[in-house]
Amino acid sequence: TQAGLPAGSSDVCFFCKQRVYVMERLSAEGLFFHRSCFQCESCSSSLRLAEYAYHGPS
Fold first, then answer.
1. pTM above threshold 0.85
2. CB 3: neighbour CB atoms within 10 A?
3. Please, which of 19, 28, 33, 55 could form a disulfide with 10 given CB 3.0 to 4.6 Å?
């Protein structure tokens, strides 16, 4: 568990700002995402952690 948070607690998805639980989240660049929210900004295709490139804030 994270400091002070009980097991099963959650973080917030960077894109949709909704709760994302440990078992359903992706983590990239120090941020958390729902799998469905982790998409290409240009074409909206779903991305995998091994197949993305971060280009910084647009």
1. no
2. 4
3. 19
Q: How far is it, in rounded angstroms, from Cα 33 to Cα 7?
A: 19
Q: Which residue has the tokens 């995402």?
A: 33
Strands 25-28 and 19-21: unpaired
The backbone torsions φ and ψ at residue 22, rounded to the nearest 5 degrees and listed phi first, read: -50, -45
Query: Residue 1: which residues within 8 A CB-CB, separation 6 or more?
Result: 7, 9
State residue 50 phi and psi, 5-degree precision: -85, -5
Tell me the per-residue pLDDT of 14-27, one tens digit each, with 9 for 90 and over.
Answer: 999 999 999 999 99
- In order, the DSSP letters of the chain are --TT--TT-EEE-TTT--EEEGGGEEEETTEEEEGGG-B-TTT--B--TTS-------
